[in-house]
Design goal:
Structural class: mainly beta
Distance between the termini: 36 Å
Oligomer: single chain
Number of domains: 1
Number of strands: 15
Strand order of the largest sheet: 1-2-3-4-5-6-7-9-10-11-12-13-14-15
Order of helices and strands: HHEEEEEEEEEEEEEEE
Radius of gyration: 19 Å
CATH topology: Porin
CATH superfamily: Outer membrane protein transport protein (OMPP1/FadL/TodX)
Largest sheet: 14 strands, antiparallel, barrel
């Protein structure tokens, strides 16, 4: 069993490297799909490939849905506060079923307002907006005590000025626990493994393929977790790293996070009230894609 799992992970990693070389040059559009969102993800620098859970899990790795332990149902509301012309919001629901594993669905959107429109002479001719949305459905289940898998399928929609595009995306994820006596987790996720966006002009974009490998370790008996993820995507540079640490204090009601996302410092804070609700906050410092940003999430468990 162990040999088969390692062969599977090695094959997934090799496929990732080869696929990245083939597709990096033609990737484009919907780049926010690869950002470390929601708030807990951002506070950890995006290093949540194996640690994410509940309604936020499929944004990082659909297999992480199997980490859901707070309750059988979770509703997540999130918003990322950015510059006046940009915003990101999401609504996500996850459920642990009795027979079918774990399921989740979400609606997320990214908006950029007031983009300048210029003619061939460079003269300003008004403004337009860019609206990008994704409706996602995810499923995950444990294949054994050590191995878990998941899949996310999304419908994509983008409106850029007067032009529109529709498309699809699929993510594939794995989480493997090699030792029964140590809380060490290994993970892999192929973000946008299959994805296309078709414009009404006849053009076609491919949302950025963002494969990722990661690991995390939580000392038994300690409410602390450390994680390291590696994003294998040449478009954003050579093997950018994501690292994060998370700890819980005051009877595990307050969570503290610190992260590093390829030259981007992040931090986060959480407050959890029993198994009823949790508030997550994140600050991203000087993101090259979004500038400084504050993320706030509210999760309900029932």
């Amino acid at each position: 069993m162990t040999n088969r799992v390692f062969k599977t992970l090695a094959l997934l990693a090799l496929t990732t490297l080869l696929f990245t070389q083939d597709t990096a040059a033609v990737s484009g559009g919907m780049d926010w799909l690869g950002l470390p969102l929601p708030a807990r993800h951002g506070g950890m620098g995006g290093a949540v490939l194996t640690l994410s859970e509940g309604a936020a899990a499929h944004f990082a790795n659909p297999a992480a849905l199997t980490n859901m332990r707070q309750a059988k149902n979770e509703l997540l509301l999130g918003h990322l506060f950015l510059r006046e012309d940009r915003s990101f919001s999401l609504v996500s629901y996850a459920r642990q079923t009795d027979d079918s594993g774990f399921i989740a669905c979400s609606l997320s959107g990214f908006l950029v307002q007031g983009i300048e429109k210029r003619n061939a002479l460079g003269e300003k001719e008004g403004t337009f907006n860019n609206v990008e949305m994704a409706v996602s459905f995810a499923h995950a289940r444990a294949l054994s005590y050590s191995l878990r898998s998941g899949i996310t399928i999304s419908h994509l929609h983008q409106k850029l000025g007067t032009n529109q595009a529709n498309g699809y995306a699929m993510d594939l994820g794995l989480i493997y626990r090699p030792f029964l006596t140590y809380d060490l987790l290994l993970g892999a996720n192929l973000k946008n493994a299959i994805a296309n966006l078709y414009w009404d002009t006849g053009a076609k974009d491919r949302p950025s393929f963002t494969p990722c490998l990661g690991l995390s370790y939580s000392p038994l008996g300690w409410p602390v977790s450390v994680a390291l993820d590696c994003v294998i995507n040449r478009r954003w540079g050579e093997l950018p790293l994501r690292a994060g640490i998370e700890g819980w204090v005051y009877e595990e009601r307050i969570g503290l996070r610190l992260g590093w996302n390829d030259q981007l410092l992040t931090s986060g804070l959480s407050f959890k009230q029993d198994n009823r609700y949790r508030i997550d906050y994140c600050f991203n410092y000087h993101s090259s894609y979004l500038d400084d940003g504050h993320a706030l999430d509210l999760s309900f468990f029932f």
